[in-house]
Amino acid sequence: MVFTQFVKDVIGIDIKVGKIETEKRFKPKIAYIDFSYDIFAESADHRVIIEIQRINYNYDFVSFLHYHMMAIAELQRNAKDYYIKPTVYTIVVLTASDIVEDKDGETVEEDVLISNVNPHNLKGESFHFYGHQLIFLNPNFKSDKTPPSIKDWLDFILESIENPENPKINLKKRAIKKAAKLIEDDNLTPEERRAAKIAFATEETRKIVERKAEAKGRKEANLEFARKLIAKGFDIETILEMTELDVETINQLEKGDEINR
């Protein structure tokens, strides 16, 4: 089965799926967060829950964390005590390139990112108290160092978007071959595929441009606000709190240095 092989290759576990749902929503919704998962599946023994979300644009990593935590909270709704039996794995597939940034605005170019809530000591040693994981896959940054089992899927994801007419994928893997066959059987003509590809690229590009313009405008506004605060004699801690700038940028502004925007 395509789904179970994908899970094994990405997470490293074997599961027997009881039920697979698409466009899964929690009802009633939790707090003010209302969203749907592209794929939601629970193992037959109720020990593992897998969620998959494909995101083409608007990489708001805070929302991904909310989605993951809400899935855990949903389990607690029916639990008799604090102990929750299932382990939740949320897999987010990022398909647009050049817009992945961390909290500080730094560009992140990684093929696989894994987040968990396990505590660690001051030596950096982690302790396996909780199994829940939030996993990000970005086929745009796959490399020779990407584990082969994962790279096969990243190749498939990227090729199905950029080169659906003649994808260069590992057809020796049965699950990949079956997934490719499912795409072939979607009854789209080559012209329709090409039109869909152009429409996808156009929408994706528009969202990227809008997001970057918004981010640039926000940064310029913060820079101008910081300059005014500096002129009025505010201390660095206050400026940090009132803007989204870092200490280095504020120090540069105090010196009158030009800031790269």
What's a concise summary of this model?
Helix 1 (2-11) packs across helix 4 (174-184). The longest helix has 42 residues, at 190-231.
What is the percentage of strand-forming residues?
15-25%
Q: Decide which structural class fits the backbone.
A: alpha/beta
Helicity, as a percent range: 40-55%
Contiguous helical run count = 7
Radius of gyration: 22 Å
Domains, number: 2
Which term fits the overall shape? Answer: globular
Distance between termini? 48 Å
Low-confidence stretches: none
Major sheet characteristics = 6 strands, mixed
SSE order in H/E notation? Answer: HEEEHEEEHHHHH
Query: What is the count of β-strands?
Result: 6
Strand order of the largest sheet: 1-2-3-4-6-5
The average pLDDT score comes to 77
Protein described:
- The protein has 261 residues and is α/β, with parallel strands linked by helices.
- It has 2 domains: 2-186, no CATH class; 190-261, no CATH class.
- The protein has helices at 2-11, 61-77, 148-162, 174-184, 190-231, 236-242, 247-255, and strands spanning 17-24, 37-43, 48-55, 87-94, 112-116, 133-137.
- The chain has a 6-stranded mixed sheet with strand order 1-2-3-4-6-5, with helices on both faces.
- Helix 1 (2-11) packs across helix 4 (174-184).
- The model has no long low-confidence stretch (mean pLDDT 77).
